[in-house]
Amino acid sequence: MNIVRAGFYSALATAARLLAALVVIKLVAWFAGPEGVGKLGQFMSLMSLLAVLAGGGISAGIVKYVAEYREDPQRLARLLAAALWYALCASVLMGCLALMFSRQLALWLLDDPAYAGLIRVLAVAQLGIALVNYILAVINGFMDVRRLALIQVLGSLLSIVTVIGLARWLHLYGALLALIVGQLLWLVVGLPAWWRSPYFRRSMLRLRFDREMTLRLAAFSVMTLTAALVSPLVNIAVRDHLALQLGWQQVGYWQAVSKVSDAYLLFLTAAINIYYLPKLASIRQRDALVLELRHAYRYILPAVVVLAASVYLLRDWVTRLLFSADFAPANALYGPQLAGDVVKIASFILSYVMLAKAMTRLFVVSECVFAASYLALVYAFTAHFGLVGAMYAFAANYLAYLAFNVLVVRRYLGGL
């Protein structure tokens, strides 16, 4: 399996996930306008945070170590038993915490205690989401890209049906509820597909505490948890700042452009995650690692430039199609956002070396430092440029992050 074939299958899966996400955004834009889209962003940030925490943040760790141990059945069995134990314990803990603080979360994120019941549903769903994460990570670790794509396509189609039904019934509340239910419906597809795979063993569903493997996963998951915690929390802080300074309608414009950016970049980030994380984790030779990174830039960077340019040229049409005529002021925000997207992908390719090689301390420090610098830049640039300053902050911060990653990878390669 090479990056081109992996990219093809991941593109199919991403297209299905993207369609499901765009259906949600379109329905919310119809029912609640820019303000509703802003609140949708807040709830999706909470969902992405809890979805990662549901499994203890070890999905990337499972991918890495399955890729390393797949030729060693004994160590693989120990790893997966420990991983499932770890994931289920973490999901129970996070579910209990979300139940306890559901009202406070609803007030903090959505300014409405009526959404507390929705957060309670999300809390109860943590166990199922953790199992979905575990299944997908094991399949990804075996680099079974076709099976992974099949699960994502069928799961996304089920999610679309759920979103349309619940949104027509309960409007904004129903659309948010469908985001949770749709995650659980992936089990309906994922479990049978995994069960029929040639590498499935019943031992993969055993629970067992293994100190060595748990410590390996815990050390690795610190990186994932840091990224998962910092990014949504910073985005929440940015939305709160923009809402306070400019109003929720302006937040809706910022959120709309950010969602378009996230949507088309999914095609590239999915391919990077599905192919490069297990691939880089299994490579130990310097020349092979350099070759993989060169291939990444040869295929992925031109793709992101073409996609970003296409979105910019079609920005008026994209905004009307995905949202409504009310979002026309968002068109002025695309330029710096799309430029930042190109730099973001260039930096992500290199940052996966830190993940794949478990550079825990360096990764955690860099995530915190660049999250803080992004927030500081948003405060500074929006004070001077207004709403578009948030996009300038995004591009400037990723430019600095790219320079940092170049230094990290050069140092790592020099030590091999």
TrEMBL record:
Transmembrane stretches, start-end: 7-31, 43-67, 79-102, 114-136, 148-167, 173-195, 215-236, 256-276, 296-314, 334-355, 362-381, 387-409
Keywords for this protein: Cell membrane, Membrane, Transmembrane, Transmembrane helix
GO cellular component, one term: plasma membrane
Location within or outside the cell: Cell membrane
Pfam family, one: Polysacc_synt
Membrane disposition: Multi-pass membrane protein
Biological process according to GO: enterobacterial common antigen biosynthetic process
PANTHER family (alphabetical): LIPID III FLIPPASE, PST FAMILY PREDICTED COLANIC ACID TRANSPORTER
Protein name: O-antigen translocase
Species this chain originates from: Rhodanobacter denitrificans
